[in-house]
Amino acid sequence: MKGNYTQRKRGALQLAGNQALNVKGNGHLSGKLVINLKSRLTKNHVLMKFHTRSGKYKHVTITGQYSHYHVKYTSNSIVLVK
């Protein structure tokens, strides 16, 4: 995705766990993230990648067979880990 990604506090993003969103610009996060995990992922699956990241999702819901995963925030990404 070219440009920046901004999600406000009332926004919601739904992704399948095997998807990845690559943002060429900056990511500004808030609101809700819903991830549906139907299959096992690689050890540290990069879900979203940015040039730089600010903020965090206020609510993260992981559904599906592999709901024991959780999100880890780095300075420029969101990673799904066990």
Write a concise synopsis of the structure shown.
By secondary structure, this protein is mainly beta. Helix content is 0%, strand content 50%.
Commentary on this structure:
By secondary structure, the protein is mainly β. The chain has one domain. The strands form three sheets. The protein has a four-stranded mixed β-sheet with strand order 3-6-10-9, with no helix packed on it. The protein has a three-stranded parallel β-sheet with strand order 1-4-7, with no helix packed on it. It is globular, with a radius of gyration of 12 Å. The chain starts with a strand and ends with a strand. The mean pLDDT is 92.
Task: Work out the radius of gyration.
Answer: 12 Å
Structural class: mainly beta
Shape label: globular
Rounded mean pLDDT is 92
Q: Spans of 5+ residues with little confidence (pLDDT < 50)?
A: none
